[in-house]
Design a protein that fits this description.
There is one protein chain. With about 110 residues, the chain is mostly helical. The protein has a domain of about 70 residues. Helix content is about 65%, strand content about 10%. The protein is built from three helices and two strands. About 0% of the residues are buried.
């Protein structure tokens, strides 16, 4: 139910906007990697503008995801360590001798 709601409310309008952007920006534009000699044909590609916009969006998403993944590395490491500690405790409990169900506690000191 939630997946369908997210699909309808978020992704459908986003798709409509991206399709409109692509249709409105079909004109080919030169993209050059040499800022000092923009006419250099070896480093210039002529592509539709929407391709460049989508490529920039994709590159931004990849770089942002990579930076987030690197920044959260210490938390993943801590979670792995705690998981190992919990597993070691489970194994220690499993190896411990069984205790009676109702242990007799000593009475109060008089």
């Amino acid at each position: 139910m939630v997946n369908r709601f997210v699909l309808i409310v978020v992704f459908v309008p986003l798709a409509v906007i991206l399709i409109a952007l692509a249709v409105a920006n079909r004109e080919a534009v030169p993209f050059t990697l040499d800022p000092f000699n923009p006419g250099n044909p070896a480093l210039t590609a002529t592509l539709p503008l929407f391709v460049l916009l989508f490529a920039a969006l994709l590159l931004g998403m990849i770089v942002g995801s990579a930076v987030t993944w690197v920044k959260q590395g210490r938390y993943r490491k801590l979670a792995r360590q705690r998981g190992l500690e919990a597993e070691n405790l489970r194994q220690a409990v499993a190896r411990a001798p069984a205790t009676p169900a109702n242990p007799v506690l000593p009475g109060p000191a008089a």
